[in-house]
User: Which sequence fits this backbone?
């Protein structure tokens, strides 16, 4: 039997890793990528110690040729991509007058352009098979801009539009495209380090988002029957205002 592959681009130490672990538990061979691939050794070891299979790669998702080469390598040497998740964040805060063109462009490349590259290349492989799932991770900024987040909100809005367009085009071809809005702080080492008091208070009331609980929704999206596909899923802790 051919291996079924779950690809996670943006496999950071929090949500990306949780998504990878979740698909591994479902029997997928996991391919994970991030800019600093050497930081994926812990995730690879964890998955393999649990009986799974994990292939880590270094990838700059903004580089078209690199994305094309990675997708082809996976398909030719590892297996057919059944699920592809784009999880690169690019969350920065700068006032509009301090937002240089370089910063704006880089955020767009990371959050939107890289998503387009992955989505396009994976779709080329999935269309002939008439199946597959493509999931894009969004944020609060996907639906509303905030003070100091002009670059981030612009890029996340673009990713959301990409997901909508791809869903309409690829749905009739058997490919489920979904966009997940993560509206709230995730329990990550970075958040714990920068906002210790905030984290302490949120954890008292179960108000911090657990990466594993978020990842469970990615599994659910992949398993949905096509007569009841979700195109956009909105997740937030119960204490979050909306």
Assistant:
């Amino acid at each position: 039997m051919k291996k079924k592959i779950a690809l996670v681009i943006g496999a950071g130490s929090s949500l990306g890793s949780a998504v990878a672990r979740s698909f591994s538990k479902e029997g997928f061979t996991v391919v994970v990528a991030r800019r600093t691939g050497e930081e994926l050794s812990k995730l690879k070891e964890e998955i393999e110690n649990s009986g799974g299979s994990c292939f880590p790669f270094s990838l700059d998702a903004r580089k078209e040729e690199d994305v094309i080469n990675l997708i082809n390598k996976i398909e030719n040497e590892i297996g057919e991509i059944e699920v592809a998740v784009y999880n690169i964040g690019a969350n920065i805060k700068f006032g509009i007058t301090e937002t240089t063109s370089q910063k704006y462009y880089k955020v767009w490349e990371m959050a939107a352009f890289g998503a387009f590259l992955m989505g396009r290349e994976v779709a080329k492989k999935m269309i002939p098979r008439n199946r597959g799932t493509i999931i894009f991770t969004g944020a609060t900024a996907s639906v509303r801009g905030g003070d100091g987040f002009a670059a981030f909100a612009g890029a996340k809005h673009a990713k959301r539009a990409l997901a909508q367009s791809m869903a309409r085009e690829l749905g009739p071809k058997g490919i489920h495209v979904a966009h997940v809005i993560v509206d709230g702080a995730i329990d990550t080492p970075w958040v714990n380090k920068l906002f210790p008091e905030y984290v302490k208070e949120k954890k008292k009331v179960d108000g911090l988002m657990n990466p594993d609980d978020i990842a469970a929704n990615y599994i659910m999206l992949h398993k949905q029957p096509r007569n009841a596909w979700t195109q956009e899923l909105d997740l937030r802790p119960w204490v979050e205002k909306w």
Summary: Residues 4-184+210-233 form a domain with the Rossmann fold fold (CATH 3.40.50.720). The CA atoms of residues 12 and 39 lie 9 Å apart.
